[in-house]
Amino acid sequence: MPGAEILENYLRGGSGEKYKDGEVSMFEYDLDIVETLLNDDQTFKKLYRKHNELKEKVRDAELGVLPLDDLTLGTMKKEKLLAKDRMAAIIEDYRRTHQ
Description:
Layout lengths: L1 H11 L18 H10 L1 H22 L6 H28 L2
Helix pairs in contact: 1-2, 2-3, 3-4
């Protein structure tokens, strides 16, 4: 299953781990729904990949590995949050229609 591989890779890359402030990563309670959507919903899959890509870039910029100015970093953080919000809306819609 391609969606399962993407989810597993994402989980190894940070999701499910605790961040420095103790926050547990996004959608940890919706893993079954996320896996289904990764397999069945191309929009969700695209958003998921985009969010992961931005997450990596933001992390690299904050570590100083990827040199970015503050404006660019701020824009990337906003894009990442927007992708997360769109994924959350898709998950919520899926939950409503598949109760």
